[in-house]
């Protein structure tokens, strides 16, 4: 196969810039990830959008921050600004486990090698640029900047940090999915304005002196948060702040948010309305090579790319609003879907890749089965302030029709270049349970389930009930576990009808706020009764901009300000986690003794087959 010219990728080196005949770059992007030119990787998306707006863009991927900083200088000084991102993950989540142990690999680096980005990467990169080029503006974005845009608790440092704009010294922050604000920023700088003058753009944040008046923009109203200094002294005020930020982030007609920090004011402009189908298509249809930059060939495959290179992302956003999840905080609760034409165009592109064997690994999104779902009457959505469309019950106004998704599955199946297309993303099973979702009026959920189970399951299906305790599930903003029972029954019936043996793989979280040790023992017993022997369990990590993080730090729920107990010590967290592994010999004595202490011999019997009588424990 003939190799593609290096100019098909955005330039990573000075030589590549010169090959394009450029003397100067308009924007230089600094990223904590290796450069993969694919729509699933944020740096590629941002770079291609800038290119589509006529800018000359270069990328510095995973620069060395520990030497003479030559990587930060190699492409020179950009005409307009530097764009900085930590990458597709918060750098601290990328680096550390829930137990704060350093991870030994990095999925966004060639060969999966760890150590190619710093802790708090956005801040480190931005400060270096400010030292080398103090006169050049720095724009920060990506998930790390987005979720740290206001005062936030950092689990790894175990303290509150101010807005990332303070420590990074950046000039402006783009939060959420950045296509819409970015295009406005580009038009602004091309017209001759400085980044600091673009204070009227939605979905950006910046700092200004307290003595300066706030910009007057249209009919925007302003909501003021408790100051950073007040939050440092008062955990309840910090918790109250979160509710305001979450509500405003998920409104169509949101207010501007301000927060005092030191002698400055943090200003967060309201978000854009969710992208329309044509805007989504425009982003996904840009001329990506869909491949890592050739410079990485000798360093080994990039695990995150290998996982998604034959997958198709059909939509963004999630209306679940789960307490522990950052998807809605970054992508929004309203679903932004691509057109069927754009999706099928990408399927065509995948089939033409030289190493494609006919199998698509995922037709999905953040939640696999939310494609095209939105309000029946969108004027109701425009006034809604709820962080979730399906908790505590499914909104009557939510259209949960699965037919558009079923139709796409069938069209992909019929494509001559596709042998099989799997759904690898997690399926939101509660949308498919009629007792929970009363909006299944024409039976299209059953049609979808049959299509999914018979054609699109790769050996096993992932779902995420997350817990079995109703009290814990309420804190998680998840439905009662009884609906998982109902889903499993339906799943098993369809599987039996077609003679299929494709196990369900349920995901659970230990140590989540509101979960006590006894709840975990119950979870282990209930899942054992269902025939599950859990192998992979997620220990709760408090990530910025989530309800669960606020509860973990403050001890109260941000919406009610009522206390909620959370496992915090290493011992408490380990105790909860051990119940998952009741089938391992090394844990059996511990579980038996622990449940004796908790006065729950009934759970010991269910888990271990022991009973307590006058002579002690016996099988």
Automatic annotation (TrEMBL):
Keywords: 4Fe-4S, Iron, Iron-sulfur, Metal-binding, S-adenosyl-L-methionine. The keyword Metal-binding applies. Residues 304-584 form the Radical SAM core domain. Its cofactor is [4Fe-4S] cluster. It holds the Pfam family Radical_SAM_N. InterPro entries: Elp3/MiaA/NifB-like_rSAM, Methylthiotransferase_CS, rSAM, rSAM_horseshoe, rSAM_sf, UPF0313, UPF0313_N. Gene3D superfamilies: tm_1862 like domain. [4Fe-4S] cluster binds at residues 318, 322, 325. Belongs to the UPF0313 family. This is YgiQ family radical SAM protein.
